[in-house]
Amino acid sequence: MSDLLIRNCNVLNITIDARAFILYEHDILIGGNRIEAVQPTGSADPSHFKQVIDGTGLLAMPGLINTHAHVPMVIFRGLAEDVTIEQWFNDYMWPLESNLQAEDVYWGMQLGLAEMIRSGVTSVADHYFFMDESAKAVEKAGTRALLGWAIFGSNGKEMIERTGKFISDWQGAANGRIRTIMAPHSPYLCDDDYLRACVKKAKQLHVGIHIHASENMDQTQSSLQKRGLTPIQVCEQTGILDGHTIIAHGCGVLPEDMPILAKHEVGFAHAPKTYMKLAMKTAPVLQFRQHGIPVGLATDGAVSNNTMDIFESLRLMALTQKQESGLATNMPIPEALYIATRESAKVYGLPDEIGALDPGNLADLILVNLNGIHHQPLHSMTASLVYNVRASDVVTTICDGKVLMQDGKLLTLDEAEIVSQVKAGMQRLAQRQPDKRIQVYNP
Amino acid sequence: MSDLLIRNCNVLNITIDARAFILYEHDILIGGNRIEAVQPTGSADPSHFKQVIDGTGLLAMPGLINTHAHVPMVIFRGLAEDVTIEQWFNDYMWPLESNLQAEDVYWGMQLGLAEMIRSGVTSVADHYFFMDESAKAVEKAGTRALLGWAIFGSNGKEMIERTGKFISDWQGAANGRIRTIMAPHSPYLCDDDYLRACVKKAKQLHVGIHIHASENMDQTQSSLQKRGLTPIQVCEQTGILDGHTIIAHGCGVLPEDMPILAKHEVGFAHAPKTYMKLAMKTAPVLQFRQHGIPVGLATDGAVSNNTMDIFESLRLMALTQKQESGLATNMPIPEALYIATRESAKVYGLPDEIGALDPGNLADLILVNLNGIHHQPLHSMTASLVYNVRASDVVTTICDGKVLMQDGKLLTLDEAEIVSQVKAGMQRLAQRQPDKRIQVYNP
Q: Which of A107, A318, A321, B265 has its CA 20 to 30 A from that of B176?
């Protein structure tokens, strides 16, 4: 008796050398939280499984991976529109975040996770505050998460200890679904001494680092002016790049940073909608990959990205890389899908466990309905996944072998309760006192 | 007894000076094919209406307008991916279109119209072949359409006469929902003499012109080299700009073209996803508007745009204009929504009839459900319309006072039949013989 059989679906297969093809009419066999086999429909006997899901006419693919988010920021979405980066931080985001209470994070995290489960996201690298609350929400939601408690130099070193306690408390929790990471905010809000102390703690606890760096060209120029080093060089010198490191954005990475990055186990989290909305040049994704530096898809927070939709990040990455490079043959569909799956898994830190429907991998997968009229006639399923799909085409989401959404119905979270709890705080959360900020942006 | 009451919805109000706000809990009263009143819920008696739709908790807004499409190209979508513009035309699109038969256009048009009705589009300016078939499909679907039969200089002047017959046959048909327009392909595929003959015929028949011009900077440079004139100057000299004119794309419009355009009744159809996908610089939308030249949203054909989703065009216009200009305060939400509604109506040629829910206007409107978890908490409905909404959030579509989709169910078209008819031709349609092209792209 095995646990779960997904029957007769078409399976997206992205090979390790980034070819993309479809296995038609296959079964996916799941035992515990692992994929046991992916095989042509026929030989698996449904009566040998505790649960059977009919995948006929649906496409199975790896659960999507969001490599950089501030999930609970969904509670503020729509509140900081059409503003510059400086205004966004100083007049909106950081005043708004002075309203944050632990409970807001608990419900905000659930709200964002519900949106992600509906959109096919099964893993998220989250970078925020009150992370014990986020961990409780992830435990309940059933997704995978890599949680980092965002800290600033101004918080003092005792906050590094507090983060360390969070890491010890939660590392490996929820059947291993929860992993943790040190999350110093950025080189512009943590001085070298503080960054070094974070690295020391991370090494002690055997976790990696999740940080913002070279988010845009202004930050890079400012760092060069102030100290003659790029933010990436600062990261190298302070040891930030010594272990597994996720760097958010990197739109200001310079050609001379590339060889440094290539020497380390670093991946970039790429959130193209944020860059467009904040009028930044996009990140050098093609150049990162030419240097062997992996790139993962991300949404960033919903105050800049508005949604938690990784399919949208996938599409915008492909479109912006073509447009920016002036060459329409760049970022072809198989490469875009490779980044969305195997390469995002690498950035997330689980390259051999998620991001592919290979036997032995963790059973994180989604079923996508490509029968909607916006896909018809379906000449190319892989083209549809990049250029036609809507998050609402995801019908079933499975993580760690457990069904989190089936046929559009969430099974682990109570959406009505979550929305009602978040709405109750809306007025309070939307208030801004410009002199009441958690930080000042002046990189 | 009046015809239709939309009860207790929130109404998007875009003023003529481009402010955006919401009228909460209003009724929309419709008599025949016109809006009679928009008023606070309460005084209208539902029993005085033949049909009542409950809009509680939904947002009503003008039906979306697609100012440039090749709708039946949906039958080819997914067949020309990751290729340059030249390959796209010469190796894919024009060989593929040599497979076209009249019946393909009839079913392809219905497929695209079904997708548009589902996405909230009620009017489309279509530019394609076998247009009698398209007109029949529009008649059946219940949408509004401005139909132009695409012609090339190589078709000979008899094709201008054929187009003239189409115009005479269909102008004002289907209760006025169908309007027609002359549609010479472009200055690079119609010589001056041919363009002048098209203009003459258009004037004779009292219709406008729908044309591709200055689609990208290469075309502009090539035209300057070959004859010392920009494509816009060619349009002016041949009379193309004399009446109501829709120009598709204009990504290659130069600053010196702006004053010429500003003197005429010209609007640009803007399809940003196509420009990104084909790695073109986007169109100078901010500059057009600074010169008082109107811009309308468009999808172009689904072989470059992949979908017929005008909400996606809206979002990508806003994002690309911010990114291209390097200023995040550009293209603020009210301006983007103004372009999507009143300004698209102007480009389409019905500025006082559609694009706004004003009493006396044609009753073209949609109901959008912003209660999905990807909008919550709903701090800003207008932000959600630009940055969060999915085409699948459209639940009800009304055109010319008739309900075309209600609660997600299409009432005028048989989707199963349409998909089955289109799928039956898939193999034949997908065949490419590179030596069998309808045209050659070499501007």
A: B265
